[in-house]
Write a structure and sequence with these properties.
The complex is a heterodimer of chains A (106) and B (707). With 106 residues, chain A is of the alpha/beta class. Chain A is built from 3 helices and 5 strands, in the order ββαβαβαβ. In chain A, helix 1 packs parallel to helix 2 (57-70). Chain A starts with a strand and ends in a 5-residue tail after the last strand. The model of chain A has no long low-confidence stretch (mean pLDDT 91). Chain B is 18% helix and 20% strand. Chain B has an 8-stranded parallel β-barrel. In chain B, strands 1, 2, 3, 4, 7 and 8 form a 6-stranded antiparallel beta sheet that branches. In chain B, strand 21 (349-352), helix 7 (371-378) and strand 22 form a beta-alpha-beta unit. The chains are: A alpha/beta (106), B alpha+beta (707). Chain B: One of its GO terms (molecular function) is amylo-alpha-1,6-glucosidase activity.
């Protein structure tokens, strides 16, 4: 299972689309994209993850990294996560640091 | 990090089978991430050589085994930085060669791959009771963890110890029962789901039974009669002191137990609940000479264990071996470990299992000035952590009252437990002991104050509070040990019928006795500890040693809240009462004087008549009054509080002390009220209209407020 990520910034909102498996081998790709969009000081980070099938602890680390890189005032939205991803976020408590939504903007 | 920022010592100098490495740093011990690599450092004094063994996660065979060059050994420490490793997928261990000479304490075995004593996570038991691969050449695999958890502004709460109400609990038992309705049953995440319950109950500290990685399959067996699987359920048998148990994490199968536990602690702190760990430094899971070689035994047996002159293992723990805690290397490991938990997990306090062992010399003799206990007491990182000793061991060293405290250590007050149990069941001649117990045991701790003692009537060892009043004898058949396990000195009383009964009078008496016990526990000076489920009448069906049961004997049945609603309401009331009244939470002992000239000393003792306490051999009545002007040793004010106990089988008439003008007695709790409420919220307490004759029922306790 591979990993693919694309990013764009629209009206100050950073939008990343993730697909495949986010693990230790692919986390560096996401880190690079976060660093890229962070340089433009976005007001929000939106992760489209409906095609993301697995997130390991390295993937979780990227959410923590994004929060720390962008600052606590920048909200992170996770759009249409699969059940297993939601479970992982819940179990580790990271779900309290992000917003799970069906659409962005809602 | 920019390339030009890399230190020169983070470039490889050696290569072995395409793996690049260089000489490492001796400290810290363990595996530490450095730029582009991992620093491995391990102590071994008597080995002749060592190899670092590297696995891809879950693979049967290692992908590399790198011998430490002789020049990478500095003193008794092997150290090496290995580059370009996948932190998340890596599992590592050590292979040590050296003499196999048990008579002289050496047990090196180069066929074994050994866990790192300083590993921060262990693989192999990622999912609770998942069948292990018994043929695994390396069953308990050291792993790396990330230290980037976002604690935000969290820090240990530093609630004064005299204000704590400790709730001892088992991670899996708390939510494993279907009635918990938790989504993540039996896990750290499950406890987080139940934080609202802990808030409703009112406790402000949870003490988690062992959460260091252990092997639930250790000594597992089938019950000889029933065929039931018996396991190492409680976990008092550590595999690794730095690693949280993966099987206690819903996310353990993803290797995220560290994040899940830290999240739990952070959320408990957000709700003003401290977290204590029950830590087991007295022995390890490697057993005696017949036990497995997992880590310490193969790395440096003679350093880590207390050995007899013949090379066998001293067994002061009752489990096969004894950690050599006052060896300087082991002492440092214990210190490093506790510092790690305090700093990286924000742990608020530690309860040390069989802590008397920590005061023994390598030859087993008790030390006058045990260096480990002294080091812990004065350690700068642990300065704000509470340290609590179980001040005895299985080798007969009993130190309740004289544990080397260094002004810091508290103790589980086993004498409080024993005296309370005897008094509650109506044994005569206990009034003097009860008077000591409710004051914070001043004879036991004359210079250490009330907070030297953690008061408890029940804990994981022994009967539950309900069973204490439902069984005269232990009923341990389910343990498969022919009744030879578990204590026989339970000081219990079945209230007239052994076990479950339809007899309404017996059941009513049991409920009353449980309330009596909770009342005395929560109005005593000292630090109260409640055992999980006692607030709702949990039963273990008379089993007083449920160490091996992963079933309803241990799992908390949440339906008991509804079944024993009156008891649960009463427990909440008494917890709230303690929190509302600082007069119950002194730090120093009473002075029996009245320097403020209020007309009453800080504490006064009574019997059926005021100021006439009956200490005679046959007495079963005892009352005391706290003067609210001396709350918190006179630093604040409170109501007057009067508590009376009657453990006769008949009711008695009490004459109450006269209060200062303008004050009256109100009933906050009366366990003798059979029908209806026996506790009353603040502001609606019934007024006592006749202080000359207050009827206190048989086996009952009252709590009155004078305001």
């Amino acid at each position: 299972m591979g990993f693919n990520i694309t990013s764009e910034i629209t009206e100050g909102v950073a939008k990343l689309t993730l697909a495949g498996s986010l693990d230790s081998s692919s986390a560096s790709m996401m880190q690079a994209e976060i660093q890229k969009v962070a340089a433009q000081s976005p007001t929000a980070l939106v992760l489209y993850v409906s095609q993301l099938e697995f997130m390991s602890s390295a993937g979780l680390r990227m959410l923590i990294f994004a929060k720390q890189k962008l600052g606590t005032t920048v909200q992170i939205y996770i759009v249409q996560p699969q059940g297993q991803i939601v479970d992982t976020l819940q179990m580790t408590g990271i779900i309290h640091s992000v917003h799970i939504v069906d659409n962005y903007p809602a | 990090m920019a390339e030009y920022d890399l230190r020169i010592d983070y470039y490889p100098t050696h290569e072995y089978q395409d793996i690049k490495f260089r000489r490492g740093h001796v400290l810290p011990f363990g595996a530490t991430m450095v730029p582009n690599g991992v620093n491995f450092s391990v102590y071994s004094s008597a080995s002749t050589s060592c190899s670092l063994v590297l696995f891809e996660r879950g693979e049967d065979e290692p992908f590399a085994e790198i011998p430490f060059p002789e020049e990478f050994r500095i003193g008794n420490v092997y150290c090496m930085i290995v580059f370009d490793l996948d932190f998340e997928r890596l599992e590592y261990g050590y292979r040590m060669d050296g003499p196999y000479d048990p008579a002289n304490g050496y047990r090196f075995d180069k066929t074994k791959i050994l866990s790192d004593p300083y590993a921060k996570a262990i693989g192999g038991r990622d999912t609770w009771m998942a069948p292990p691969n018994w043929d695994d050449i390396y069953p308990f695999r050291s792993r790396l963890v990330f230290e980037d958890f976002d604690w935000e502004d969290d820090r240990p709460l530093q609630i004064p110890i005299e204000d704590l109400i400790i709730y001892e609990m088992h991670v899996r038992s708390f939510t494993m029962h279907p009635s918990s309705r938790a989504k993540y049953k039996g896990t750290f995440a499950g406890i987080r789901e139940k934080i609202p319950y802990l808030k409703e109950l009112g406790v402000n500290c949870v003490e988690l039974m062992p959460i260091y990685e252990f092997d639930e399959w250790e000594h597992s067996k089938l019950h000889p009669d029933t065929g039931e699987q018996l396991v190492n359920y409680w976990g008092y048998s550590t595999l690794n002191f730095f690693s949280p148990k993966a099987g206690y994490a819903a996310s353990g199968k993803f290797g995220m137990q560290v994040d899940e536990l830290k999240t739990l602690i952070k959320h408990l702190h957000e709700h003003d609940i401290e977290v204590f760990l029950d830590v087991v430094f007295n022995h390890t899971a490697e057993g005696d000479h017949r036990g497995p070689t997992i880590s310490f035994k193969g790395i440096d047996n003679k350093t880590y264990y207390m050995l007899t002159p013949e090379g066998y293992y001293f067994n002061f723990s009752g489990t096969g071996n004894t950690l050599n805690c006052n060896n300087p290397v082991v002492r440092n490991m214990v210190l490093d470990c506790l510092r790690y938990w305090a700093a990286e997990y924000h742990i608020d306090g530690f309860r040390f299992d069989l802590a008397a062992i920590l005061g023994r010399a390598p030859d087993g003799s008790p030390l006058n000035n045990p260096p480990l206990l002294e080091s812990l007491a004065f350690d700068p990182v642990l300065a704000n952590c509470k340290l609590i000793a179980e001040a005895w061991d299985a080798g007969g060293l009993y130190q309740v009252g004289n544990f080397p405290a260094y002004g810091r250590w508290a103790e589980w007050n086993g004498k409080y437990r024993d005296h309370l149990r005897k008094y509650l069941k109506g044994e005569p001649g206990l009034v003097g002991d009860l008077a000591q117990a409710i004051q914070g045991s001043p004879w036991l701790y004359p210079t250490r104050g009330t907070t030297a003692g953690v008061n408890f009537i029940t804990c994981h060892d022994g009967f539950t509070l309900y069973d204490l009043f439902a069984y005269n004898q232990k009923h341990n058949d389910a343990n498969g040990e022919n009744g030879n396990d578990g204590g026989n000195d339970n000081e219990s009383w079945n209230c007239g019928c052994e076990g479950e009964t339809d007899n309404a009078a017996v059941n009513a008496l049991r409920q009353r006795q449980v309330k009596n016990a909770l009342t005395l526990l929560l109005v005593s000076q000292g630090v109260p500890m409640i055992c999980m489920g006692d607030e709702m009448g949990r039963t273990q069906q008379g089993n007083n040693n449920t160490y091996c049961h992963d079933n309803e004997l241990n799992w908390l049945n949440w339906d008991l809240i509804e079944k024993n609603a009156g008891l649960f309401a009463y427990a909440k009331h008494m917890i709230a009462f303690r929190k509302a009244h600082p007069a119950l939470r002194n730090r120093d002992h009473f002075t029996y004087t009245d320097p403020k000239q209020t007309g009453y000393a800080d504490i006064t003792f009574h019997g059926v008549k005021p100021f006439e306490c009956d200490y005679s051999a046959g007495s079963r009545v005892f009352a005391w009054m706290l003067n609210g002007n001396y709350a918190k040793n006179g630093t604040t004010t409170d109501d007057y509080i009067y508590i009376a106990t009657n453990m006769y089988y008949e009711g008695i008439n009490l004459q109450l002390p006269t209060l200062p003008q303008g004050r009256s007695w109100y009933v906050s709790a009366n366990t003798g009220i059979i029908d209806g409420n026996c506790c009353f919220a603040t502001g609606v307490e019934p007024l006592v209209t006749n202080i000359e004759q207050f009827t206190l029922g048989p086996h009952s306790v009252i709590v009155l407020l004078g305001r």
